[in-house]
């Protein structure tokens, strides 16, 4: 696994963990972020390389700072 894949996987796991801590369903977060549930599912599985803007929308809708989303990777 290369660095890019490892980073994508780490980001996906972090998003999923934070979403679950908030008690939010994947569908609900996807809707709030105006993205397809399937895209959020792929992101959480580490199968996509999200843009910074997408990560910002996710952080905003999880009511955290963007830094909190990526700081512990």
Automatic annotation (TrEMBL):
Protein name per the record: Transcriptional regulator
Coiled coil residues, start to end: none
Alphabetically ordered keywords of this record: DNA-binding
This protein's GO CC annotations: cytosol
Alphabetized GO MF terms: DNA binding; DNA-binding transcription factor activity
Pfam families attached to this UniProt entry: HTH_3
Domain of life of the source: Bacteria
Residues of the HTH cro/C1-type domain: 15-69
Ranges that cross the membrane: none
């Amino acid at each position: 696994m290369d660095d890019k894949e490892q980073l994508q996987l780490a980001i996906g796991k972090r998003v999923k963990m934070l979403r679950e801590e908030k008690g939010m369903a994947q569908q609900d977060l996807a809707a709030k972020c105006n993205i397809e549930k399937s895209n959020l599912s792929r992101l959480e599985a580490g199968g996509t390389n999200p843009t910074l803007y997408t990560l910002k929308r996710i952080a905003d809708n999880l009511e955290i700072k963007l830094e909190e989303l990526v700081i512990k990777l």
